[in-house]
Specification:
The protein has helices at about 1-40, 60-70, 80-95, 110-125, 150-155; strands spanning about 50-55, 75-80, 100-105, 130. The protein is α/β, with parallel strands linked by helices. Strands 3-2-1-4 form a four-stranded parallel beta sheet, sandwiched between helices. The longest helix has about 40 residues, at about 1-40.
């Protein structure tokens, strides 16, 4: 048994080192080529219609600004109309040719249908959909006594 452990202590590190020397360089070359391809052939979103839910703050707000800088036409959806209006104004200033804002709660199926219908009626098309809206609960899971208390988060 001791002999087997000594053999493994010598053979295994050498085998791993050899495998790394064989596998790592092609992997790094692949990653480099993928990066170059993405940077050269990135999608041009100028003029495309992008619907972003949860656009009044956080990631959705930042995505709206990024799409605006690239010239996309935006449909912004959120529950807080005052914050949504501020994001829409900034998106216009950043270069979005057309910003459409919709106050809606995506936890309601009727609002989801209305969002899509209003966007299609306004722009006539929808190219990208960013489902970013979400809610959270400020409590530990252990403190939740009923599973039904979590259904509004998981739906």
């Amino acid at each position: 048994m001791i002999l087997m452990h000594r053999a493994l202590n010598i053979v295994l590190p050498l085998a791993i080192l050899i495998l790394l020397l064989i596998i790592l360089p092609p992997y790094l070359v692949f990653k480099l080529l993928s990066y170059i391809k993405r940077s050269i052939f990135s999608e041009n979103v100028a003029g495309k219609v992008v619907l972003i839910t949860g656009a009044s703050s956080g990631i959705g707000e930042d995505l709206a600004y990024e799409y605006a800088v690239r010239g996309a036409r935006l449909a912004l959806v959120a529950r807080r109309e005052d914050r949504l209006r501020a994001v829409a104004d900034k998106a216009r200033n950043l270069g979005s040719p057309n910003v459409f804002q919709v106050r809606a709660d995506i936890s309601k199926v009727e609002d989801c249908k209305r969002i899509i219908d209003e966007t299609l009626n306004h722009f006539g098309q929808l190219d990208h959909l960013v489902n970013n809206a979400g809610i959270s609960q400020a409590a530990y899971f252990e403190d939740c006594t009923e599973v039904s208390d979590l259904t509004h988060i998981m739906v």
